[in-house]
Write a structure and sequence with these properties.
The protein has helices at residues 5-14, 24-32, 36-48, 81-89, 120-134, and strands at residues 68-74, 94-99, 111-117, 141-145. It is an alpha+beta fold.
Length: 158
């Protein structure tokens, strides 16, 4: 996809986050000399063209009191990754679920899910509940609680 100068300005405008406003696309359009609809349509075209992979919200969970955060890593047979991922991703307490390649022999895990909580014990209860309710007892897993916070931000394109 060939990017216009206007596309480059739009990407630069949104890569650090959308304005905290009830009409962020209108605000961006005002800055760039575009209508709200033009901004929405151009972002959609950039997504369809694969220039923008995804848009999402970065929540600073620690500031909201969620300080017990665990990444649960699973060793799932390859032919079950999609179905297990769907089961995990559908759980209300799971905020992120994705597949990654194994790095054998040191790292046999290929499915990851994040669970945020206010207390460590509650996060462990969530994990136990998911394992039991979804029939995942046989799958090897590790629970990795966060020990350090890193800067959270979206993708940088320019």
């Amino acid at each position: 996809m060939v990017l216009s100068e206007r596309d480059n300005h739009l990407i630069a405008e949104i890569q650090d986050g959308l304005p905290l406003s009830s009409r962020p696309y209108r605000e961006i359009g005002r800055r760039l000399g575009l209508s709200e609809l033009q901004v929405i349509e151009r972002i959609s075209a950039l997504q369809d063209g694969g220039v923008i992979k995804r848009m999402g919200i970065v929540v600073r969970h620690h500031e909201l009191g969620y300080t017990a955060n665990a990444m649960v890593v699973w060793d799932v047979p390859d032919d079950q990754v999609d179905s297990v991922g769907e089961k995990l991703g559908s759980q209300p307490c799971v905020t992120l679920c994705y597949q990654r390649p194994r790095k054998l022999p040191e790292w046999p895990y290929n499915l990851f899910c994040m669970i945020h909580g206010r207390e460590r014990e509650r996060v462990l209860e969530h994990i136990d509940s998911i394992v039991a309710s979804q029939g995942l007892e046989q799958l090897p897993r590790k629970i990795l609680f966060s020990g350090k916070r890193f800067k959270q931000r979206g993708a940088k394109y320019r």
